[in-house]
TrEMBL record:
Keywords: Transcription, Transcription regulation. The keyword Transcription applies. Residues 1-26 are annotated as: Disordered. This is Transcription factor MYC2. InterPro entries: MYC/MYB_N (IPR025610). Residues 22-66 form the Transcription factor MYC/MYB N-terminal domain.
């Protein structure tokens, strides 16, 4: 099975890092899934605290109403 090259490669620790490219221009297209993954790596949530922590801790979806 071949991996699709999107300009990112995994290092020995399994963490993604930008592939060696021309630093002046990067024409890579990052999918929504990849972007979500990259941004999620910078976040942490306490189990049971806040909306995201509660959803993760209970393993259940949370319905938000009147989110104005």
């Amino acid at each position: 099975m071949m991996k699709e090259d999107r300009g990112w490669e995994e290092d020995e620790g399994g963490k993604g890092s930008p592939a060696a490219t021309d630093e002046a221009t990067v024409d890579e297209k990052v999918t929504d899934t990849k972007w979500f993954f990259l941004l999620s790596m910078m976040q942490s949530f306490v189990n049971g605290k806040g909306l995201l922590g509660l959803a993760f801790f209970t393993g259940s979806p949370i319905w938000i109403s009147h989110g104005d």
